[in-house]
Amino acid sequence: EGLAALPDRSYDYVILSMTLQVIRKTDLVLREMLRIGERCIVSFPNFGYWKVRAKLAVLGRAPVTRNLPYSWYASPNLHVLSIQDFRRYCAGHDIRIEREIPLGHCGRRGPCALWPNLFAEEAVFVVTAR
Question: How far is CA 22 from each of CA 16, 46, 83, 93, 94, rounded to the nearest angstrom?
Fold first, then answer.
């Protein structure tokens, strides 16, 4: 709600770090970020990460990992999204992805670079309005 008071393009960068999955009005927040900033940096835990998928498939329970340290009942997460989900969201909402940075323990040229949706624990995107 506080973003509405800021003028258009009043910042070079607006950062939403590890928060996308916990906010209630995702569309509103992203739209306002893109309105007030030239570029927006968005980071989030990748729920498509193979260890998250494997724990759910093998144990049959909501996973608890280093990046997702809460049990399902205590988690602040409202949205479960993957890198692929965010790419699709951007494509459907006139958001241009300038840069995508997959993060994890697999190196820049390893599997994170080849298959980020499966091997990156987190993702950082730099986005702009089209």
Answer: 11, 13, 16, 20, 22
